[in-house]
Write a structure and sequence with these properties.
It contains seven helices and 17 strands. Strand 16 and strand 17 form a beta hairpin. It is elongated, with a radius of gyration of 27 Å. The protein has 298 residues and is α+β, with helices and mostly antiparallel strands. It has a six-stranded antiparallel sheet, with no helix packed on it.
């Protein structure tokens, strides 16, 4: 075989391996306009495996939270306080009222209701709903007795006032307690709709300026420690993820689509002496050996 044929053959080998180094990054650090950081991810193998079944980035670049009661848009994430805010398209607000089936969290989901969330059940039956006691004073055993102000303000909204509902048909959960099943079944409670508020924007007496939605808190783990490997991965421009195999072990997804067990600094190996990525050394060896053979025949 002449030198030109050998060079052609070995160049073909190089081209075969090039896609491995030029594939796009599998995991991304944004979904639409929302920054994505651990423990969340944009697809399988990204973020923390406990969160992957519940939080996903759609093809329309919309981050969503899925539970057994529906799919909800994630409007913001506060990574400092570890709070996720979501909106429910069936929820009533000061500007719009609509019937709703309610809201629920999966019992095994890694979320809990944040203390700032206030649920107001609307248009509940005062005669047959289980939230009322069957005694003379008709108190609210399942509701917050201090929630009358919120009910009164909600009833002052144009959208709700047009329904001409008595204030007694509004029931406030604060703090939120949906029981061991984490579910608000409005059909069972015999309420037509609900409203949820997690902030007042300094306008406590103006329901039109409230922040409507549901605030959920999350933890990284039992001790709520940010994983050190993940911190190193993100500092190296990687995205924290996991091996999709049975072990679900940690993986750092790097630009170019490579996964490492540490971080993405392996890309600086040649110039700064940092460590190589285990498992990709073989590719580097193929390049080195191939070019050595080519040079030997030139």
């Amino acid at each position: 075989m002449n030198p030109k044929s050998i060079i052609t053959l070995l160049s073909s080998i190089l081209i075969t391996f090039l896609p491995t180094l030029t594939t796009s990054q599998t995991c991304h650090n944004t979904c639409g306009k929302l920054p994505i950081k651990y423990p969340f991810g944009t697809g399988p193998g990204c973020g923390d495996p406990r969160f992957q079944p519940y939080v996903a980035c759609t093809q329309q670049q919309q981050l969503t939270l899925s539970t057994h009661t529906g799919c909800y848009t994630v409007t913001s994430i506060d990574y400092n306080t570890q709070v996720v805010h979501i909106s429910d398209p069936t929820m009533s607000t000061c500007s719009c009222t609509r019937p709703s089936p309610g809201f629920g969290l999966n019992y095994d989901a890694p979320f809990a209701f944040h203390d700032s969330t206030v649920f107001a059940l609307l248009d509940c039956s005062t005669t047959s709903s289980p939230i009322y006691k069957g005694n003379n004073n008709s108190t609210f055993p399942m509701c917050d007795s201090q929630g009358e102000d919120i009910c009164g303000l909600l009833n002052s909204c144009d959208a709700i006032s047009r329904l001409s509902l008595p204030i007694s048909t509004c029931c406030v959960y604060a703090p939120v307690d949906l029981g061991p099943s984490f579910e608000m079944d409005l059909e069972k409670l015999q309420c037509e709709s609900y409203s949820a508020v997690y902030g007042y924007n300094g306008q406590e007496s103006n329901p039109a300026g409230w922040e409507y939605g549901i605030a959920l808190k999350y933890k990284f783990n039992y001790k709520n420690d940010y994983p050190g490997l993940c911190a190193s991965c993100e500092k190296s421009n990687g995205v924290c993820g996991y091996d999709c195999g049975p072990s679900a072990s940690f993986a750092c997804n790097c630009p170019g689509g490579l996964n490492t067990t540490t971080d993405c600094f392996f890309g600086q190996t040649w110039s700064f002496g940092s460590r190589f990525f285990p498992g990709k050394i073989g590719i580097f060896s193929v390049f080195s050996s191939t070019w050595f053979v080519i040079l030997a025949f030139m």
